[in-house]
Design brief:
Alpha-Beta Plaits; four-stranded antiparallel β-sheet; Ribosomal Protein S5, domain 2; alpha+beta; homodimer
Amino acid sequence: MKSVKLFTPASVANVSCGFDVLGFCLDPVGDDMTIRKSDEKGIRITKITGQDLPLDVHQNVAGVAAMALLEANPSEYGFEIEINKRIKAGSGIGSSAASSAGAVFGINHLLGSPYTNHELIDFAMQGEKLASGSAHADNVSPVLLGGFTLVRSIAPMDVIKLPTPKELVAVIIHPKIELKTSHARAILKKTVTLKSAIQQWGNLGALVSGLYSDNYDLISRSLVDEIIEPYRAMLIPEFAKLKEVSMNAGALGCGISGSGPSVYALTKGFENAENVGQAMREVMQKLGIDFEVHISKINEEGIKILSEE
Amino acid sequence: MKSVKLFTPASVANVSCGFDVLGFCLDPVGDDMTIRKSDEKGIRITKITGQDLPLDVHQNVAGVAAMALLEANPSEYGFEIEINKRIKAGSGIGSSAASSAGAVFGINHLLGSPYTNHELIDFAMQGEKLASGSAHADNVSPVLLGGFTLVRSIAPMDVIKLPTPKELVAVIIHPKIELKTSHARAILKKTVTLKSAIQQWGNLGALVSGLYSDNYDLISRSLVDEIIEPYRAMLIPEFAKLKEVSMNAGALGCGISGSGPSVYALTKGFENAENVGQAMREVMQKLGIDFEVHISKINEEGIKILSEE
């Protein structure tokens, strides 16, 4: 095997009550990546289309993640990475995670899979560290494992794949303003009240229960975040309005995707998702900011091999 | 039907990572209560054996809870409550919750069950308020619903019954010193770091996942509390040692039961529970404080009718 072409999906992290621990994988939205084995050792990023991102392996999350894998598992081969980016950097739907996860998944595959996808999370997270200034695994985990994932701990790495109720659909609206994860992190307080923390872990526990028991009402009641959202909402134009119209249109919940500016909603079924998407669209159209809306089933498979040679 | 005799079980709240939201129900440990319908309106506590507790309905949790129910659902009858207390007040295994839950369960039963057990939680919680100075439902919920319960919210009341892995066994050691819940609350800080809160909700989410998936290793990894335990541990003689010997003896986890002084451990199977119990016993024997050890399967049924006339 000399090369592999991948679909590396976008993902939604945090999911309201699961700040820094929860994420889920999207379906039609994502990048294509091609990884090629080469006789020349080391990692090279040979081509990036779709966006203006650095080819320097030390400056690109895919390069950093790939090097972390090769450092742990030295190879006689080198690898070339080609990325067709369709997820915009800074959009809040895991652009850097898709590249980080894709690089390590592709190289691992070409090496004969010395690592499981669970084990690849740690390497992919090294790329995330470059992107956001802090190591977090809540986007790379759903990309590598599919579905909903819960990061119990990153040191040692302990990630659990959660079940996905079959009718759950995600709606994403991406207002085309750039919001750096590092800025969205800087706005957060370092402490929270015990009272609000208790509320948050009650909601997260309930959400996990709702995912296991296909209880859409419980999922809906649990999608609450009074710790992070009040701060980050200020960075997103018309967030309150987007949330209000989504809930009025029947969404189970609505919140900030990752660190924003994308906003996610979860719905029961595609018909409701279309209504929620339309309601969000109307808010953004009035505002005059460029935007995109994605409607996606939860991608239970995660990252996918498109072809190999 | 004129009277009902009940077994009202003890319970463990908090369960390490689930402060104020999680609890489970014990089996052989509990009180007996008899509730009798009477032609004289109102609530009377006619007899308490086993412990020196107030008969005044305004000063006794059972009375307060019972009056809350009758206020919402006025009756032409009154009710007499008789309690044989075997759970010591201030032991940390839900003594007040057993009485509160028993009172409302018994009266509801004699009234022809106008409320579900879920709905009774709110009334029982009024009794808890008297006992601890703040309303919490993490002990009354497992008593009324059985098994493990998660209190997502108390206003509005939203309690979820979680599944119980079949081989889970609880070990309780009760050092006979009194520790008031209100004092154990006063020692807590009003704020926590965001970092430790994230760790806690990651662990609680993982514990809920472990309960649904019968994953004993995951349950074990999740039974961590770095927020409350470090403070309350100071109030419990030899807590660190009890935890150390339990874990060395193979417990899945060990922590403070409720607000203490009882310490709980969870094990896989009864044989392991006996070993853990013995290890804890040896620590307490050296210390010279009076104590009791209980070994209990998780009581999935909860409160139980023993007889009725």
